[in-house]
Amino acid sequence: MLLAHPNTPVGVERLTEALWDEEPPRHARTVLQGHVSRLRAVFAQHDAAAHGVELLTQGAAYRLRLPETLVDAHRFEESLRLVRRSADPGETVAVLREALGLWQGPAFDGTVHSAPLEARAHALEELRLTAVEALASAYGQLGDHGAAASVLRAEAAAHPLREPLVAQLMLALARAGRQADALDWFHRTRKLLADEIGVDPAPVLTGAYNTLLRTDAHARAHPEAHADADAHTHAHAHADADHGTARPPAARSHEAAAGPAVTPQLLPRRPRGFIARQDELDTLDRITTAAPGPIVTLTGSAGVGKTALAVHWSHRRRADFPDGTLFADLCGFSPTPARDTRAVLREFLLALGVPVERMPGSPAALGARYRELTAGRRLLVVLDNAVDSEQIRPLLPGGDECVTLVTSRDRLDGLVATDAARPVTVGTLPAADSTALLAAVLGPEAVAAEPEAAARLAGLCDGLPLALRVAAARLATRPHRGLASFAGELADEQHRLDLLKAEDTGVAAALGLSLRHLPEPARWLFHHLGPHTGATLDTCTAAALADCPPPRAALALDQLAAAQLVVETGPQSYVLHDLVRLFARSLAPDHEPAGLLRLLDHWVQTLLGACAAAEPGGEPCCALPPGAGRTAEIRRFADRTAALAWYSAERGTLRATVEAAVAAGLHDRAWRLVLLQWPLIVWQVRDGWVPLLEQGLASAELDGDPAAQSRASALLGWVLSEEGRPEEALTRLERAPDLAVRAGDFAGEAVARINLAVALMRYGDRERPGGLLADALALAEREGLTETATLAHQHLAQHLLSVGAAAEAAEHAARGLALAAPLLAAPRRVVLRTLHGEALAAVGRTGEAVRQLHEAIREARADAYEEGEVAARVALDGLAEPEPQRGPGPEWSTGARGRSSLGGSRSGPRGGSPRS
Predict the structure, then answer these.
(1) Lowest-pLDDT choice from 161-170, 642-651, 787-796, 876-885
(2) Do 833 and 869 contact (CB within 8 A), yes or no?
(3) Of the candidates 745, 685, 680, 670, which has an alpha carbon nearest to the alpha carbon of residue 711?
(4) Could you give phi then psi for residue 11, rounded to 5 degrees?
(5) Kind of pairing, strands 295-299 and 422-425?
(6) Positive/negative CA dihedral, 668, 670, 671, 677
């Protein structure tokens, strides 16, 4: 927003409108100040001032001071102003090519969607299209109509309803000798206008069409006037207007030897019920018009719809390949053996008009003849279902006139490396497109009648087109079954793959063909992945499942990713889709008990490491279970932010892992997997944790561990209290201290007493909390539990403030700060400083109070802890007002300072970490 208005003050209101398209958050101004502060830090880090860049505050506005020549949008607009004053088309071409080269994607791509930014982006896009049209016009003035058509074609495909652009493209194509293509663009656009918006072509488009017709009629009436032009055209037969490349004489001589010119059309029929894939179609359009002789690889997992996409796009762009289309199923992943390259070459040469009696004999001669015959033609070659790069290379056409489209379940890295192939990954369908595919097969009425069931069914099919089509086929042939009933059957993981099978077509069969072609390390690992309970998978977890060293697991995962059975999402991070996981589970049920036990022990050890990173200095709530196997390696967490981000990402997987542990009767693992999530629970307390904690408590009871029961009861009671369920909360919290005493768990007893005290404070008890907190503090100090002692000081300070004992409150806040300063994360220090400041103010030590509250604000801002900063600011503002009567009301027990935790280190906002 500041770059869009350089050297101009931009008010806070305008920035707020740009950042939040809907209702801004309650503390929008504070958040905005944080963004500005971090932006200034980035500028300082990169010495922006040396380049004349500075972010200034001007009242209630900010101004980004900088030389405008540093902004590419400014340079682009300056270039347009320059060419408007130029009469030299050569200079115009040079300037506009450089100006358009500044674009690296849509304007403001990757930012928030808001009206101010989108308005500016739209204005820039209009200028870009104006520049494209001006560049094409300049090429036309130079007589290079092929270049003009090349510039316009991509933009007309991206903006098919921009009639002036299409009209200009039609005229450029006609002047380049491609009258049929030009007329095709008119009819295509006329149909699109009628279908999409129900209007007839505008005069600019019909005018271009009439011009083409008049030119064509004149050519037929006066053929002698066009003799020279025809001779020129034949000398450059099939020259591509996009590249201006003539067909080599060698190619023409071999065509003569082959017999009459033949236009092969080997494409299969257009796939029925093809859904969406607009992003992939646009990418194919862009790649195939950007460079000569492009090779594109469409890669993805089994059943994801690669062939359908390739054939659909080929039919859609068929008119762009006047010399025909070649298609071959290479059977790379098929029950039948892979196609022999020589057989495919013979098939292609026959289609290109080579008689059987003149067919070359050797593989080398077949390849040479194929490359010669394709060198000067504008052909589309589709190589479907390739097994590897080696199978493809002999089938690549010669010259720069052809486009080659390859589909495979393998990533074909070799073809990318040696032949500059452009990879396009074909992923699963998003939810809306999955539902649309079901509607295309079953009929829109069936889906409209049960929309929620259709959405659930699509989700259970993982967005995989093959699974969706099989599911739809089973429903279509059994009309008595409803979508909800079938979705309920699919929800049973044990039978899902069986249900996704129709005769010889099914998900398991397709995945089995992929597995058959895997290298041995990948096949071996895949057989061990069944016990995994989630979608995300890292190298360490895979190594634990397979009981192997991480480097071996890393190699196998890379091979699985190359075969599209897992999706690589980052360094040593992958996604394993449900249907693939269920297929892995079906292969080796005998391995499941041992593999599951290894997985559970790995997760427990990983959670212990995450707890240590999320709460440095905190006491772990449990140790490894007896007999736990030591995992070879666990994920490392750089800091608290990394640990909490991992918790959030893996929450679903961990919940499923708990369920798997309970189902297997491994309750000693189950309750640990629950309780070790407490750093995330205390940071997102109102996020539906009760069922999981109840399961953890039940497992602790079944395991007969009173210490685990105490900690589970304390955490569950506290969460119930946060959810406004006081009777249930106190029932759990009252039990927790006695259970800890029975177990001899002094740390658990201290935490249980703190949590009970906090709940009692919330519900207005002014007597018991003080004693509970004092006992907890004594226990923590006696056992050397620094973190828990700090927490007890914090809540004692809060309680004493609420009952009017400000001097004692100040003492406990100060002691907590002294204990915690070198250890605790910033949120805890912010809370303690704020309490200390309020207590000091209450005893009349205003100067010291102000210093503490300013320091709390500084630390909160540095740690992006918005709620803590707001609380400290409120306290600071209140120093100028009469001190209110303090009481035990809910504001003293429901805010950031009123939080306790299983491990004794909670201090943060509801619903998210202070860094969120």
Answers:
(1) 876-885
(2) no
(3) 745
(4) -70, 155
(5) parallel
(6) positive
Say how far apart CA 728 and CA 730 lie, in whole Å. 6
Q: Give, rounded to a whole angstrom, the gap between the first and last alpha carbons of the chain.
A: 22
605 vs 541: CA distance, rounded Å:
11
859-863, long-range: CB within 8 Å, 24+ apart, which pairs? 859/826, 859/829, 859/830, 859/833, 860/826, 860/827, 860/830, 860/914, 861/33, 861/34, 861/37, 862/826, 863/825, 863/826, 863/827, 863/830, 863/914, 863/915
Helix pair angle (866-877, 826-842), 10° resolution: 10
Q: Is the pTM of this model over 0.70?
A: no
CB 382 within 8 A of CB 310: yes
User: b/e string for 766-779 if b means 16 or more Cβ within 10 A?
Assistant: eeebbebbebbbeb
Max Cα–Cα distance, the chain, nearest Å:
111
Per-residue b/e over 222-257, b at no fewer than 16 CB within 10 Å?
Answer: eeeeeeeeeeeeeeeebbbbbbebebeeebbebbee
Please report which helix (H) or strand (E) contains residue 424, including its range: strand 422-425
Phi/psi region, residue 54 (left: phi>0; alpha: psi -120 to 50; beta: rest), is beta
Residues 6+ away with beta carbon under 8 Å from 665: none
Q: Which of 19, 16, 108 is nearest to 61 (CA)?
A: 16
| pLDDT for 629 | 83
Helix 768-783 vs helix 786-802: crossing angle, to nearest 10: 160
Q: How many CA atoms lie within 13 A of 537 on its CB side?
A: 35
* 760: nearest Cα among 717, 816, 804: 717
Q: What are 406's strand-pairing partners?
A: 297, 383
Q: What is the mean pLDDT of the chain?
A: 82
> What span, in angstroms and rounded, lies between the C-alpha atoms of 832 and 814?
8
CA-to-CA distance for 467 and 189, rounded, in angstroms? 35
- Report yes or no: 614 and 914 within 8 Å, Cβ to Cβ: no
Exposure string over 71-83, b if 16+ CB within 10 A, otherwise e: eebeebbebbeeb
Share of the chain above pLDDT 70, in %: 88
Q: Do the Cβ atoms of 879 and 846 come closer than 8 Å? A: yes
Q: Distance between CA atoms of 437 and 289, rounded to whole angstroms? A: 29
Pair 754, 788: CB distance under 8 Å? yes
Chain segment 572-626, per-residue pLDDT in tens? 888 887 788 888 887 865 545 788 899 999 999 999 999 888 877 667 788 899 8
Beta-carbon contacts of 748 under 8 Å, excluding residues fewer than 6 positions away, are 621, 707, 710, 711, 714, 736, 739, 740
Burial 135-163 (b: 16+ CB within 10 A, else e): bbbbbbeeebbbbbbbbbbbbbbeebebb
- The DSSP 8-state label assigned to residue 85 in this structure reads T
Map tokens 């990394």 to a residue: 642
**Whole-angstrom distance, CA of residue 221 vs CA of residue 203:** 26
Separation CA 141–CA 92 (nearest Å): 10
pLDDT digits (tens, 9 = 90+) for 91-136: 888 889 888 888 888 888 888 877 788 888 888 888 999 999 999 9
* Confidence band, pLDDT 50/70/90 cuts, at residue 252: very low
Tens digit of each residue's pLDDT (9 = 90 or more) over 420-439: 899 999 988 888 888 888 88
Place of tokens 């929309």: 451
Burial of residue 728, with CB atoms counted within 10 A of its CB: 0-12 exposed, 13-18 middle, 19 or more buried: middle
517 alpha-carbon distance from chain centroid: 29
Are residues 9 and 63 in contact, defined by beta-carbon separation less than 8 angstroms? yes
Amino acid making up residue 589:
P
The answer to whether 313 touches 304, Cβ cutoff 8 Å, is no
Q: What is the DSSP string of 473-516?
A: HHHHT-TTS-HHHHHHHHT-TTTHHHHSEETTEEHHHHHHHHHH
Question: How would residue 365 be classed by pLDDT, with cut points 50, 70 and 90?
Answer: confident
